[in-house]
Amino acid sequence: MEENKQGLARPVLMLVLDGIRPSVLQDAIGGGEAPALEALAGRGEAVWDAVSVFPSITPAATAAIVTGEAPGRSGIVGHAWYDRGEGEVIVYGATTETVISTGPLKVFHNNVWRMNRDHLRAATLFERLHEFGVEGACVNFPIRRGPYEHPVRLKIVKSVAGYGEYLGEVVSGPKEYYLGDIFYTRDTGLQGYRGLGGLRRSVGINDEYAAAVGARLVRERAAPFTLVYFYQGDSIAHHYGLEAQRRYVGKLDEYVAEILRAGGGLERVLEEYAVVVLSDHGHTPLMPQRRRHVRLAKILGERAAVGARAGFGPGVDLVAVPNGRSALLYFREGVEREVVEDLVARRGIDLAAWREGEWCTVRRLGREISFRPGTGPADGFGCRWELRGDPGTLDMEVDGDELRYGEYPDALGRLRGALESPRCGDVILSATPGYTFGEVSGKFHEASDHGSLHASDSNVFVLACGLPAPRRITDVAPMLLEHFERSRVEPGVL
Ligand SMILES: [Zn+2]
Question: How far away, in angstroms, is 131 Cα from ligand 1 center?
Answer without folding.
Answer: 33
